[in-house]
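Retro notes
What went well: the complex prediction finally ran end to end.
Inputs used:
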Amino acid sequence: MNSPIFRTVAPFLTSLMLLFSLFVLLRGHNAPGGGFIGGLVAVAALAIHGAAWGVETVRRAIVFHPLSIAAFGLFLSCIAGFASAAAGVPFMTGLWVTVHVLGSAVALSSVMLFDLGVYLVVVGALLAIVLALEEEEGV
Amino acid sequence: MAASSVIDVSAALAAGPATAAQWLVVLPAASCLLLSAVLVMLWRQPRLQQLLAVAGLAFLVLVDLLLLRQVLATGPVTMVMGRWLPPFGIAFTADLTGVLMALAAALVAFVVCLSAAGERETSGRGDGFYPMLLMLMAGVSGAFLTGDIFNLYVWFEVLLIASFGLIALGPERAQIDGALKYAVLNLVATTLFLIAVGILYAVFGTLNMADIVMKAPDLRETAPLVTLTALFLLAFGMKAAAFPVNFWLPAAYHTPRPAVAALFAGLLTKVGIYALLRVTVMLFPPEREQLEPLIATVAVATMLTGGLGALAQNDIRRMLGFVVIAGIGTVLAGLSLGGPGGIGGALFYALHSMVLMTALYLAIGEAGRIGGSFSLAALGGLYGRHAGFAGLCLCLFFAASGLPPFSGFWPKAMLVKAALDVGAWWLAGAMLLSGFLLTIAFGRVFLMAFWRPAKETAPPVLALRWQAIGPLLLLAALVVGFGAFPELLLRTVQDAEITLDNPQAYLGSVFPQGAAP
């Protein structure tokens, strides 16, 4: 799209939305949000960038093929399930580790890893569709 | 707020560590899913993809074998997801019926993968075949091993998505056409299934199958269970290609390449059959009895459309589509009869059909390749060039028609006997008639494509490839083996029928304490 206003605003909007998508992802454990919605927000952000600066820019920016990203997400989610085997509990049981970073306690869990996987699956799969559509339309 | 944080949830959590036997229940679906993710990431390395896929499916066969051994030794095995006990959590429960189906599916997928690996060398670079094959197997294994009816729906979706991808692989226009018909009809069926699950949840307040079995007697007086069962029958009947919702199958199955068609013919309709057995025999047996006349009518119509349709086709691949349908009709006949003979026979026939239909599609795919055509008008002279291959095909044809001494004979004998025992002579007659029609149809194929000398103008018959014949021999060995020595399978199938019909052991495995909270 050849609008100077849109082209100027798009990078800011994209970065803001990507940041927000991560916030939604991490917030998801105890409040509305999570990997799925976070992933959708991220895809919307990248779609805006693609509309403003062309699909190629987005493809370069995400480095990997969208479907590889989705597959990596699926891989992470499966790993999060299999991690339970190491702890001797049933498949998909949540495991927690508390890490102390700079004096504050951060709770990490296999649930979070699973959600991160969902995020990547949504980003990868939807981005593959969105980019293909944008390419076809020539926006 | 303070009160909510002190709720003791330990009663809802499984105590004690998970055993290796329990892990075997989730491993088939989970490992396939994991491997399919890895294979997508390796899309630039087709050789490595191929190797990993073959190794992964061999592993799947091994896991299913170990699970079968476990189930035979101790009865049904259950693992709950995330330690949440049913009915809160999702349970994976493997009983004999599920494990037998899962094992047959794994074997079929392994053989198809080997055969596709041979095909691949001629067609060049890899595509999405292997990742989607593994994803399909995740869906199929999950569907056979889950103990939760909504989860069953989820696995149906997984295998459906993978099968859409597989059927659309390739550049031909006819494939897109076939894929569309397949996709639309299956989406309708899946939606009906989802609606039925929604009603089920509204009635029972639970989705765990064992829990439903326990709650059903109290609700039988008031809840519309026959309607619900009929809805399930329609949804799964569509999946299984039962008359009158079977027209998508012959319209779609001849379009993809032989390995994919073989996989579909072996697996997809049988998942519908499995779901039908699980829901009608285990969850709602009195409702099944009420629907018996309906199921029997559908079965007869399905068998006859299959037999007549097979006779009317000139394209061999299209003909095989109708053979699949005739087989489904036979299984439905068993379902309508009930009891050890009916359900056991249906289960045996479903297992036999998984192996046999895959073998038939692979064999016909190879026959079409070496003969240069799938049309009966053009083919000829295959026997003269490859007598051994023709013999192999003839064995498979006999097995599909239900002639002894191959594996198709025993389940048919069981079913005919069961039908005559209850005086359903017309059902027995329909089974025999459909077998007779298939015999004629296959006789016609053998006569025209194999026996008849090749036409003067026809291209010369090509050489066989061992990559195609090797996997085929593996399946044919099973067909002949279980035809010659059926006792082991007969006994196992009857045991499976007992646990399905009288699921005390299944319930005990899901609720070890005896009662639901």
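What we learned: The beta strands of chain A are 96-101, 104-109.
What to try next: split runs per interface for comparison.
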